[in-house]
Write a structure and sequence with these properties.
heterodimer, A: alpha+beta, Immunoglobulin-like, 7-stranded antiparallel β-sheet, 3-stranded antiparallel β-sheet, 35% strand, B: mainly beta, Maltoporin, Chain A, 2 domains, 22-stranded antiparallel β-barrel, 46 strands, globular
């Protein structure tokens, strides 16, 4: 019986110790802020006319990431009819200083990524000019050939970066996103015009 | 010993109510195994509602009985109940043997002889025998045994209980007297409990069980380990299950050693391993599970005093359907339209991202002492450590880093004083103090979903039970809780402004980091809860219980602080610092009719909740990843009401027909619409056959019919899909169609030796391999639920 009493005493001490521990363990140290690492804040697509001319740059920047502010978009100027543009696309995290170039990570994991392009209204057509280690298109380099009639003057151009798409699905290597699957890392649309 | 005699005398004094009848029924209660006498067994005459308790020599005596035939029930903790019929014409003496065995403990609870937590509440017990069938599954699965309890799931391994339409923070889960603190606010956070550690589970609907907490608006789930008998004994059981779906299984072993002196020691372990589960038409890639659980417990129990130390550890690694990890609304539309998961790989045991890894430690020490002529005092201390990692599909160097890394530590101290010297007027008074710390590790490189916080809780309650006349008991209780949460949270400056916090909460900003603000929200909540009810025995086979209760619940960290993108759901979830407590008023009525061959229970409830907190879509936000639906917490007034009906009819020798039907409606009174996520009507019918002469053979064919939820708020929205150059309606609201499942279970028992039983169970779930999706499975947009599953279980009791 003495033994039991001792145990009860011990438990009471443990309990009280627990309570005291509570009152002193509250730490007032300020937590460390987290700056998101793999966030893409900026997409820059550059279109350089083959044979010279004015480069068209499309920029979409969203510095608050998943926050409430919508991306700010800029289109440097109109495309020119009947022109073949050499295109490239760059993804940045500008929350870091200096800005982190996410494009490099995409190149390192090229088999798991693909950039898709589309434009409405028949403003032009896209073709991939790069490929990943398996010989499938990646889409960081491409050409854009504008329509050569005056009938089409504007459209919506969409650039999509997919993570883990099914590159062997029908149409995917031709740039058709329909069967690509995977998940969207970037999807930006621009209002573009053509002279 | 003197005190024991006093209690005995009290027990007997209750019995002294009959007329001039003079016969005496007496005898001795003896343990079947070792022939030792059983002290404190209950001897209950059903017809007269008279009872006695066996004394220190196992003797009992009930006097002043009239001539007649009586059914006598003998019960003792740790023993199988025994019922005998006596024909009383003169004084009668009997020797009665009771048998204790680990799995027979539930027999007490089935017959309702064990003390209930509340007298007037809607309380259902699940026996350990029933629980054993769920040995390889989760707590959420097992709780569906109770009519009116359904589940909120994320795939088939993350299963949370829903009691009468509500879940998560509105349910208190008690494990061995400890309130589980495991980040229960998240809909994809399943309780970290191994169902095998429970000897029996009690579900109390509504907030009437104030001793557990004042905020259990939906109810309480209480898991208790087996009580230990005061005999020298070593016993245990092993359950091995294997199943076709998931191509895995589980092993569970429990061992207990008890001593005549009152000491006991027990240990318990479970291992589970599954690979990808399968829907009827495809593999559910990355849905495997790896789980381990372990617990030990030791202590000493005598009538006057006792103590117990308990430790348990649960480690879960849970894969989440790969196809459910999506990028933006566009991907969600693709997923909804495709009708098939977009990622289907060959079967594998690998658990890749997305996945969860959770470790939960729980330590408890408790001690009690009975005070002469007063009652019982009990103190308890418990500590819990919950570590949660969530791994997302990430790229680059962060590929193997967790996206969520939360550590939640909780210390609680409880003291309870029970005055039961007068059994007609029982009072219980309790005090609770709790400190909780949440630490969100910044090394994830992902903004914290839940901030660092310190939480302080204090509670005090008083409950009482009054036996007014024979068969009529009134219970009442009142509880006060104080909650204080002191958080340190970073807000994006843009979010801070968008929410209008710069106007309302400007004073809590601690530091301005340019794009982010460090804030220090501190909130205090005072909550009053109360309950009043009665239990009335209309006749020997009819019982009526009614209860009215009020409860207040303070908002949880998720409701206050959520602020970010959930990849698994492709939605931005926003909490609100302005959320206040919700207040529930619940009225319940239970009618029980029980005859030997026919049992019927009707549970009705009406629940009105002021400032009910719910999360619902509110438009979309555009980001570089595309558009996301925004799900925002808001408060409204709500009504929930329904009926749970349980019927058991023994229509022919050995054949039983069991029906369980749950019907519930929920309305948002402010928006004048149906509430979101209310379970549809569900009815389960089963035909059971048991024959004790064929080695306890039993077979059950069960049909489970779940209707389509036709009442739901329309939160659909239109979204421009660039790839198609058109606006598409995103249907996130429409519930899936009704479904019907057939399950079949067979069991047979062999006695290997006088003390060793072997039980074989072969079950087939979803026999017809039916394709179905459930409204309350969060992965219903992406894939069908489980296909056919054949389960073989071997159980050895020794």
């Amino acid at each position: 019986m003495m033994k039991t009493m001792k145990t009860i005493k011990f438990l009471t001490i443990v309990a009280i110790a627990g309570l005291t521990f509570n009152s002193c363990s509250s730490d007032d140290d300020a937590p460390v802020p987290v700056n998101e690492e793999e966030v893409i804040t900026t997409v820059i697509a550059s279109f350089t006319p083959q044979g010279g001319g004015t480069t068209v740059t499309l920029t979409s920047q969203d510095l608050d990431g998943d926050g409430p502010d919508a991306p700010i978009q800029a289109v440097s100027g109109p495309f020119v009819s009947g022109t073949v543009y050499n295109g490239s696309v760059q993804f940045l995290n500008e929350l870091e200083t200096p800005a982190e170039d996410i494009t490099e990570e995409i190149e390192e994991e090229d088999d798991e990524h693909q950039v898709f392009f589309s434009v409405t209204g028949g403003v032009g057509t896209f073709a991939y000019t790069d490929s990943d280690a398996d010989g499938n298109p990646l889409g960081l380099a491409f050409t854009f050939t504008t329509d050569d009639t005056a009938a089409v003057l504007n459209g919506i151009m969409t650039i999509t970066l997919r993570h883990e798409p099914n590159k062997s699905a029908a149409g995917v290597s031709d740039g058709d996103i329909t069967n690509a699957g995977g998940e969207t890392d970037v999807e930006v649309s621009f209002d573009v015009t053509k002279n | 010993m003197k005190l024991f005699l006093v209690v005995m005398a009290l027990m007997f004094s209750i019995l002294g109510v009959s007329q001039e009848c003079t016969f005496k029924f007496s005898g001795k209660v003896i343990d079947f195994h070792d022939r030792s006498v059983i002290v404190g067994a209950t001897i209950y005459i059903q017809e007269l509602e008279k009872y006695a308790v066996s004394d220190e020599n196992g003797n009992f005596e009930i006097s002043k009985l009239c001539t007649g035939t009586y059914t006598i029930l003998f019960a003792h903790i740790g023993c199988e109940n025994k019922e005998i019929k006596i024909d009383l014409k003169s004084d009668l003496k009997r020797e009665v043997f009771l048998e204790h065995h680990i799995e027979n403990l539930q027999n007490i609870t089935i017959t309702g002889e064990a003390p209930k937590q509340t007298k007037s509440g809607q309380e259902t017990k699940i026996s350990s025998e029933t629980l054993e069938a769920y040995s390889s599954m989760s707590l959420g699965d097992a709780l569906k045994e109770v009519t009116g309890v359904t589940s909120l799931s994320t795939g088939n391994t993350i299963v949370k209980p829903i009691i009468n339409g509500m879940h998560s923070s509105r349910i208190i889960i008690m494990t061995n007297g400890v309130r589980l603190q495991d980040q229960d606010w998240g809909v994809e956070h399943a309780p970290n409990i191994d169902v095998n550690t429970a000897g029996a589970i009690t579900v109390i609907k509504g907030s009437s069980a104030l001793a557990y907490g004042g905020d259990a608006i939906a109810g309480v789930v209480s898991l208790k380990s087996q009580p230990f008998a005061k005999t020298d004994s070593l016993y245990g059981k092993t359950i091995i299950s294997g199943q076709s779906n998931g191509r895995g299984g589980s092993v569970h072993t429990a061992l207990a050693k008890t001593f005549k002196t009152g000491w006991f020691v027990a240990a318990n372990g479970t291992l589970k391993r599954y690979g990808d589960f399968e829907a009827p038409d495809y593999n559910l890639t990355n849905t495997g599970l790896k789980s381990g659980a372990f617990s030990v417990q030791t202590g000493y129990n005598s009538f006057k005093q006792g103590f117990e130390v308990f430790y348990s550890y649960v480690d879960n690694e849970i894969g989440i359907l790969r196809a459910s990890h999506i990028g933006n609304i566009n991907d969600l539309v693709n997923a909804i339209n495709s009708q098939q998961p977009l990622v289907v790989n060959d079967f594998s045991y690998d658990i890749n991202s997305p996945r969860q890894e959770i470790q939960h430690h729980l330590v408890k020490a408790t001690a009690f002492k009975r005070l002469k002529g007063f009652g019982k005092i009990e103190v308890q201390y418990d500590y819990q450590n919950n570590q949660r990692f969530e791994y997302d599909v990430r790229i680059g160097d962060n590929r193997n880093n967790a996206a969520v890394d939360l550590n939640l530590q909780t210390h609680s101290i409880l003291a309870e004083l029970r005055k039961d010297s007068n059994l007609d007027r029982i009072y219980t008074f309790g005090l609770m103090g709790r400190y909780q710390n949440n630490f969100a590790n910044p090394e994830t490189g992902v903004r914290r979903l839940i901030p660092d916080y310190d939480k302080y809780d204090f509670g005090a309650f008083l409950t009482t039970e009054w036996k007014l006349i024979q068969g009529l008991i009134i219970d009442a209780g009142i509880r006060y809780d104080f909650n204080r949460i002191d958080a340190q949270k970073f807000y994006r400056t843009s979010r801070w402004t968008e929410r209008g916090y710069n106007v309302d909460f400007a004073d809590i900003v601690v530091d301005d980091l340019g794009t982010q603000l460090l804030t220090n929200p501190v909130f205090n909540y005072h909550n009053i809860s109360a309950s009043l009810g009665m239990s009335y025995d209309i006749s020997t086979n009819q019982e009526w219980m009614a209860n009215i209760s009020m409860a207040k619940r303070a908002p949880n960290p998720s409701e206050l602080f959520s602020d970010g993108l959930h990849h698994s759901a492709a939605r931005i979830e926003l909490g609100d610092l302005r959320i206040e407590q919700e207040t529930s008023y619940r009225l319940s009525s239970t009618y029980i009719y029980s005859r030997e061959k026919f049992k019927f229970m009707l549970e009705l409830f009406f629940n009105h909740i002021n400032d009910y907190v719910l999360i619902e879509p509110r438009g979309t936000e555009q980001t570089l990843r595309g558009a996301f639906p925004v799900w925002e917490y808001r408060q409204t007034n709500a009504n929930l009401y329904g009926a749970d009906i349980t019927t058991n009819y023994n229509f022919y020798k050995g054949f039983n027909l069991i029906n369980k039907t749950a019907f519930i409606k929920g309305y948002d009174l402010d928006a004048n619409t149906a509430l979101i996520d209310v379970p549809a009507i569900r009815t389960t019918n089963s035909v059971n056959y048991t024959n004790s002469e064929w080695n306890n053979f039993s077979s059950a064919l069960t049909s489970e019919l779940v209707f389509r939820q036709n009442e739901f708020p329309d939160n659909n929205f239109e979204q421009y899909i660039a790839a198609r150059d058109e606006f598409v309606l995103v249907d996130v609201s429409t519930p899936p169609p009704a479904y019907h499942l057939l399950n079949w279970s067979n069991e047979i028992q062999f006695s290997l030796s006088p003390k060793t039983d072997l039980t074989l169970n072969l079950s087939v779930n979803n026999i017809l391999n039916t394709n179905y999706r459930d409204y309350l499975n969060r992965l219903r947009y992406f894939a069908d639920d489980l296909g056919r599953n054949i389960i073989l279980q071997v159980k050895i009791n020794y």
